[in-house]
Amino acid sequence: MKVAVLGAGYVGLVSGACFADFGHVVTCVDTDAGKIEALRRGRVPIFEPGLEDLVARNVGARRLFFSTDLREAVAKAEVVFIAVGTPARHGDGHADLTYVYQAARDVAAVMSGFKVVVTKSTVPVGTGDEVERVIRSVRPDADVAVVSNPEFLREGAAISDFKRPDRIVVGTDDARAEAVMRELYRPLYLNQAPILVTSRRTAELTKYAGNAFLATKITFINEIAALCEQVGADVQDVARGIGLDNRIGSKFLHAGPGYGGSCFPKDTAALIRTAREAGSPVRIVETVLAVNEARKAAMAEKVIAACGGSVAGLTIAVLGLTFKPNTDDMRDAPSLVILPALQAAGARLRAYDPEGREAAAQLLPDVDFADDPYACLEGADALVIITEWDAFRALDLERVKSLLSEPIVVDLRNIYQPELMARHGFRYVGVGRGTPSGDSSPPTDSTQPVAAKERV
Question: Is residue 172 part of a domain?
Fold first, then answer.
């Protein structure tokens, strides 16, 4: 099949490259001529494992093309995907649909014959109705079916998610469009990926509901982690204990500094706005959003407490800045709250991230950036781990201790074992690994160095 994808950002580029790898002929269209030229030269503007090779392979096979010419791409296509950005609108948190509606107008102006126009961007309920209205306002005679086909891609694992999805949601009541979408996804038949065909509005809400539920799981375990710190329980064992219940499941039960990224913050905010406008507020999601923001701020206080109650004049080494590993995405990353709070408390900051340095430098002024983890640690008064990159999971602990001025490690992702860190002589602070107030007994063999009691 011939496919046009409007928007060569994260969703559009991954989707276009994967469809091309299925054997379809795909043209990704973007108004940014510099981005298109870079893609033609094989330069992928985002970091996503495997994407650069996937793009190069399909460009070489002449199944994947990049263009600024919307007219030509739409004219050839049987399916046109709208995969432009829907950032949070300033002031009210609603999704900004400016680019979506402009894309609809642009497609309407150049289309001919029957077209299936698919909204891949994450959009509030009812957006598909408005996209159809926009198209028909420009072309009253348009033979078009507007479909919702939300994406469920995790940054860092997007290619695997696209090729081996849990489900494919298609929102349409048009039989012709359903047939086209089934043919488009036919290469996934052997993977037995279920195609769920729903109404358009149901598909739109499914995306928001899914992200809100996952954000809720993260926020729930973070609140349990805070409780664990007060009562002397271990949140990782609690998470295992409840995650083995198949009604709950183990995924998204990893305590940390709060969720971030391009999806959960803006999608929960947009769902809250949609629900309020519909007169049916989602109180749980409202609480999730508020608790998550407070969580990020509390992590700075955790670092300050670990350093004895003040970081004024101290140098803090920070490993990991992006909102999660295997991406260069800094959007709503916890580091964007934690680092400025430490600076406001008087700390000097030195940071290292394997992929996020360029983006972080634009957002975090007065931070020194190191070229590797050990250079980041040299002479620092404490180490803070914010993002759980694989490169940080097996650090040479003897070397780490020798480089730090003080053996203080604040591990906001629990990638190290408290007993191991105690044996190496660190004052180690994790998340949700508390000691009951007033209990000074050692957590491990009393002959081994004991980590300082966590202060929260």
Answer: yes
Indicate the number of domains in the chain. Answer: 2
DSSP labels, 188-202: GGGGTPPEEEE-HHH
288 and 181 in a common domain = no
CB atoms within 10 A of CB 91: 6
Residue 1 CA: distances (Å) to CA of 111, 383, 418: 17, 52, 54
Q: Catalytic: which of 228, 263, 307, 376?
A: 263
CA distance 456 to 446: 24
CA quadruple 38, 39, 43, 49: dihedral sign: positive
66 phi and psi, to 5 degrees?
-130, 135
Which domain does 332 fall in, by range? 238-429
* Residue 168 falls inside a structural domain: yes
Concerning whether 263 is annotated as a catalytic residue, the answer is yes
Which stretches within 381-436 are classed as H helix? 397-403, 418-423
Write the DSSP assignment of 217-254 as a string of letters: HHHHHHHHHHHHHHHT-BHHHHHHHHHTSTTT-STT--
CATH number at residue 11: 3.40.50.720
Nearest-angstrom CA–CA distance, 205 and 45:
30
Does any domain span residue 225?
no
> Is residue 373, in this structure, part of any structural domain at all?
yes
pLDDT digits (tens), the chain, 456 positions: 999 999 999 999 999 999 999 999 999 999 999 999 999 998 999 999 999 999 999 999 999 999 999 999 999 999 999 999 998 887 677 889 999 999 999 999 999 999 999 999 999 999 999 999 999 999 999 999 999 999 999 999 999 999 999 999 999 999 999 999 999 999 998 778 899 999 999 999 999 999 999 999 999 999 999 999 999 999 999 999 999 999 999 999 999 999 999 889 999 999 999 999 999 999 999 999 999 999 999 999 999 999 999 999 999 999 999 999 999 999 999 999 999 999 999 999 999 999 999 999 999 999 999 999 999 999 999 999 999 999 999 999 999 999 999 999 999 999 999 999 999 999 999 999 976 543 434 333 333 333 333 332
Same domain, 313 and 246: yes
